[in-house]
Amino acid sequence: MRESYHEELTAVVDDLVTMTDHVQVAVQEATQALLSSDLGAAEKVISDDAVLDRLHDDLEQRCFVLLARQAPVAGELRTLVAALRMVADLARMGDLAAHIAKIARMRYPRSAVPESMRPNFQRMSTLASEMVEIAGRTLKERNVLDAQKMADHDEEVDDLRTHQFRVLLDDSWSHGVEAAVDCALLGRYYERIADHSVLMGSRVIYIVTGLHPDGENWTIA
Amino acid sequence: MRESYHEELTAVVDDLVTMTDHVQVAVQEATQALLSSDLGAAEKVISDDAVLDRLHDDLEQRCFVLLARQAPVAGELRTLVAALRMVADLARMGDLAAHIAKIARMRYPRSAVPESMRPNFQRMSTLASEMVEIAGRTLKERNVLDAQKMADHDEEVDDLRTHQFRVLLDDSWSHGVEAAVDCALLGRYYERIADHSVLMGSRVIYIVTGLHPDGENWTIA
Predict the structure, then answer these.
(1) Is the CB of residue A88 less than 8 Å away from at least one CB of chain B?
(2) CA spacing 20 to 30 A to B50: which of A70, A101, B23, B124?
(3) Distance from CA of B178 to the nearest CA of A (A)
(4) Dihedral angle, C-alpha B29, B35, B40, B42, nearest 10 °
(5) What does residue A109 show for φ and ψ, rounded to 5 degrees?
(6) B177 vs A: CB within 8 A
(7) Other Cβ atoms within 10 Å of A4 Cβ, number
(8) What is the reported pLDDT for A209?
(9) Are B78 and B153 in contact (CB under 8 A)?
């Protein structure tokens, strides 16, 4: 029983890593939908979100069963606690990617992002995607070596969002209200994907060290 | 041990109800900050959010300890599973109220919401606050009698948000980009508070019936 329990715990973490890969693909495809007006990519992200939701439900259930039946302690308990939080993070990140894809689909064949804002969103989406990747690698390897890179990326995402607001609230903004509202919401979705990536990193720190780093700045752990 | 365990489980649910009350106050005060340009109310919601975060951390920890040490089954397991999800819902609702308060503070002494949009936001905030209240009462009394009211409120919130977009994207919108962006984000925050209230209701259905209702429409359970 204990052996199959350890195997099941390992399988839960492996499946979380796989789910993180799926989320990264969703973020990349949502960006493709948004910045290349790719309707097929948008539809794919939106329909694949149901797959992520099923993965969430399955993984969450397995964590609760392990918690309830095995009375884990110390590192194993921390792993299950962290896994439960991460699976919720990942489901939410999938939802956010789907929100981006829905805005892309709504404006198709136009792009929701005006030409002048594209470099900002290109960079923001690249950072968000890389942060998801770092979160997955950190979980897979149980190390926190990429913590500084995650923190730097997160800071840059925040700066990009501040810049977005500066541009779209400036008197020189000529793209109208709809584009401004789209950009404000899109910026928030990418920022939230980045936030959840940082939180995932902080969950790994919790697994490894037992400490709760500040979600806003996981390098303090 | 079992007795103190049952007492602790009861205390966890009681504290969740109390936390729901705090969240309802936060939503009401954030609305006061927003619609009455009340800077004091805004500051209070923002600083009280840290209290909600501490309640979250404390309650979550206690749930994990109960799960890990007591190996609960059936109704008790469901209660703990649901409690863990609800405490995450409530922390997030507190964050959203703080986001509303921050927009109110940023635009003070002006109001972020133009006069023509105030009835919409007044109604939306009333519905969101009532939904939080229904969620708390449903949890406290472990009954789902208010399910239809929750569903009706949620539908009205969605309609109000659709209406917001229609107004602020209309050619006749004369309040500029900043007000449009503020309203789009504020509408999203209230909508998310309503969503989490619905989810809380669905968690109670899960406790009582063991069934997972569709989060979007908890009356199907």
Answers:
(1) yes
(2) B124
(3) 6
(4) 60
(5) -85, 0
(6) yes
(7) 9
(8) 81
(9) no
**B69 with A71: Cβ contact below 8 A:** yes
What is the average pLDDT across B172-177? Answer: 95
pTM of the model: 0.89
Q: What is the pLDDT of residues A108-148, one digit of tens each?
A: 999 999 999 999 999 999 999 999 999 999 999 988 778 88
Q: What is the ipTM of this complex?
A: 0.84
Contact B132, B199 (CB under 8 A): no
Number of Cβ within 10 Å of residue A5's Cβ equals 14
pLDDT at B212: 67
d(CA B85, CA A84): 10
Contact state of A64 with B73 under an 8 Å Cβ cutoff: no
> Sorting pLDDT into bands at 50, 70 and 90, what band is B221?
very low
Q: Are B42 and B102 in contact (CB under 8 A)?
A: yes
Residue A154 near residue A198 (C-beta atoms within 8 A): yes
A24 Cβ contact partners less than 8 Å away, ≥ 6 residues apart: A129, A132, A133, A136
Chain B touched by A6 (CB under 8 Å): no
Nearest CA distance, A86 vs chain B (angstrom):
12
Q: Are A84 and B84 in contact (CB under 8 A)?
A: yes
Mean pLDDT of B23-51: 98
Which H or E run contains B105?
A: helix B74-107
CB contact under 8 A, A185 and B180: no
CA–CA gap between residue B139 and residue B147 (Å, rounded): 12
